[in-house]
Amino acid sequence: MTSDKLTDAAAVRKAAGEYRTVGRTARKHYGFGAVQRYWVVVDGQLHDAKAIVGAAYGYQYPDQGSEQ
Fold this sequence. Notes:
Oligomer: single chain
């Protein structure tokens, strides 16, 4: 999976909301390690990029699930 397949802003916002609710443990839920380099800024807040992309991909493509 590449992030260019992620085109639904609503899916990204939903993933970001989940991240803010669950906290940084959200990345563990999706099987990702600690952030090394990349972050996503949503509504002025930093989020672990892999967790956001993985969760948002799952929201956009529910038949495929989240990707790692």
